[in-house]
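Run log // design_07
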């Protein structure tokens, strides 16, 4: 793809992402239909251009993000989508991930004009979210993510958040085809079982009434109804078995509840898959879907619990593989015994996704 490098016009000035974004979003290639922005702290996989071109061809009118950091609230919605086999998920966060983002060229031009009047203190991802929301553009995040965050020092102080890696890293062994990107987008979620990374505790991320209502952080829900305590105990036992050795310290204390959050997300996904089967829909690439689901399970603990590991001493790889094993057992042993249609209707996970 033709590429232009855009530099901060005042690198010694006060830290600002908007200052560079003003220039970076200006369309410059006369024949382009879309404008892709890549920030300098992402790394690209082989065949990145082919994947992006296929994704844009599948969703030409949307704003498409190819990254979601693994502890964001969007990351938990993206995990539900990955478990259910969706290539796209609507982003519920109140900012728009701009590490790797593509817009139709007319919207890129309009965004550049909006940024010209934006306050330099406003983060660029908030300003872009403000434009996309005001313009009524559908905004989707890709599963798998097509870029990885390189975690260099943050211009705006985000280094204090800890590592911010991809939620669903692209698996080299199962790259998505053009058919994959033409799959459905998950846009019906209204509540997502989540882990609030600031507190490293389970929570519920919920949308208020009405299609344009904001999302808010709420206390965790009894997702499994009357069977809740029994399900929690079973998931805790699965985690202990999968770890094979205890995890010491604060991470070990909270990890069982993170496993329960994963089980709740899988329950949502199973209900969504049931609705899709009823409509005759299925994931286009089984290998891509399986790889995305496993990748999503690996990142839930380091994404949500990163503030508990400031020295980088936790073996996240071991915990990630244990979470993959827990997810597999939840799918095979736990969820078949539950009435997911009843739970979906009781707890309004999604609108119009399940028919009882």
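design_07 sequence
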């Amino acid at each position: 793809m033709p590429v232009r490098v855009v530099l901060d016009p005042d690198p010694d000035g006060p830290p600002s992402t908007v200052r560079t974004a003003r220039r970076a979003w200006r369309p410059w290639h006369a024949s382009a239909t879309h404008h892709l922005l890549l920030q300098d702290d992402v790394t690209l996989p082989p065949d990145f251009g082919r994947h992006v071109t296929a994704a844009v061809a599948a969703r030409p009118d949307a704003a498409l993000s190819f990254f979601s950091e693994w502890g964001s609230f969007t990351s938990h919605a993206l995990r539900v989508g990955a478990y259910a086999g969706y290539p796209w998920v609507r982003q519920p966060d109140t900012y728009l991930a701009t590490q790797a983002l593509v817009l139709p060229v007319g919207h890129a031009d309009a965004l550049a004009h909006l940024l010209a009047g934006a306050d330099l203190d406003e983060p660029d991802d908030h300003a872009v979210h403000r434009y996309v929301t005001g313009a009524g553009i559908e905004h989707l995040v890709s599963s798998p993510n097509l870029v990885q965050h390189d975690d260099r020092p943050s211009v705006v102080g985000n280094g204090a958040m800890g590592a911010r890696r991809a939620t669903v890293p692209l698996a080299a062994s199962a790259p998505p085809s053009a058919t994959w990107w033409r799959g459905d987008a998950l846009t019906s979620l209204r509540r997502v079982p989540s882990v609030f990374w600031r507190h490293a505790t389970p929570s519920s991320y919920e949308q208020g009434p009405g299609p344009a209502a904001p999302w808010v952080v709420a206390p965790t829900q009894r997702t499994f109804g009357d069977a809740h305590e029994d399900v929690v105990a079973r998931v805790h036992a699965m985690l202990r078995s999968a770890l094979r050795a205890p995890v010491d310290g604060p991470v070990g204390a909270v990890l069982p509840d993170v496993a329960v959050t994963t089980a709740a997300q899988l329950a949502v996904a199973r209900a969504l898959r049931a609705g899709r089967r009823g409509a005759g829909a299925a994931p286009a690439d089984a290998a891509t879907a399986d790889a995305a689901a496993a990748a999503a399970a690996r990142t839930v603990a380091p994404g949500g619990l990163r503030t508990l590991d400031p020295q980088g001493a936790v073996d996240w790889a071991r915990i990630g593989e244990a979470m993959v094993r827990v997810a597999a057992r939840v799918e095979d042993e736990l969820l078949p015994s539950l009435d997911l249609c009843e739970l979906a209707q009781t707890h309004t996970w999604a609108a119009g996704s399940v028919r009882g």
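The chain is about 40% helix and 10% strand.
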